[in-house]
Design goal:
single chain, about 180 residues, alpha/beta, 6-stranded mixed sheet, 3-stranded antiparallel sheet, binds inosinic acid, binds magnesium ion
């Protein structure tokens, strides 16, 4: 375990099993359809790679990037699109993939922006959900794990752009971010 990690919350094995289950569920729910899977960089890059390989349907993948946290651990509430999707989504079944639904500021804003482009449907798949911290009325259609209010890193999630490559999800020691 990394020295800056207080404890492992979700092991590599737990992640792999749950991501497989989500893929099966999505495969069943969208049977016979083509899904436009879009993920929000950078936190969801590993989840996106594993989840899409667990979906047994014809899919397309696309990416967008938004600013959220800077180097802090608390959402600013200000969301800015830094990189937009490459392809139009009009008439498509859009599955938006996120690493974590925390305050909900990011997804609340994004869903609003994307809905205006008239997709046939929008659903949200988030690996992690911290329901206690929600500031906006938004929930995900697919949730990997509900987790308590602790700052976590690994499997794509960062603190100040570090720790994304840890293969598990762990709770960061508060000393590391001055908490
Ligand atoms: P929200 O807008 O507050 O829902 O935050 C969404 C974004 O905040 C996520 O996509 C993450 O990048 C970041 N975030 C929220 N909680 C954590 C955490 O515990 N660890 C790492 N990043 C987090
Ligand atoms: Mg982040």
């Amino acid at each position: 375990m990394h020295q800056d990690v207080e404890k492992i919350l979700l092991s590599q094995q737990a992640l792999s099993q749950r991501v497989g289950e989500l893929g099966e569920q999505i495969t069943r729910d969208y049977a016979g359809r083509q899904v436009a899977v879009a993920s929000v960089l950078r936190g969801s890059y590993i989840f996106m790679a594993d989840l899409t390989r667990a979906i047994q349907l014809p899919i397309t993948v696309d990416f967008m990037a938004v600013s959220s946290y800077g180097s802090g651990t608390v959402s600013s509430g200000q969301v800015e699109i830094k990189k937009d999707l490459s392809d139009p989504i009009e008439g498509k079944d859009l599955l938006l993939v996120e690493d974590i639904l925390d305050s909900g500021n990011t997804l609340y804003y994004l869903v609003d922006v994307l809905r205006a482009r008239k997709p046939a449907s929008i659903r949200i798949c988030t690996l992690l959900d911290k329901p206690e911290r929600r500031a906006k009325p938004i929930q995900a259609d697919y949730v990997g794990f509900q987790i308590p209010d602790a700052f976590v890193v690994g499997y794509g999630l960062d603190y100040d752009e570090r720790y994304r490559n840890l293969p598990y999800i762990g709770v960061l020691r508060p000393e590391v971010y001055g908490g």
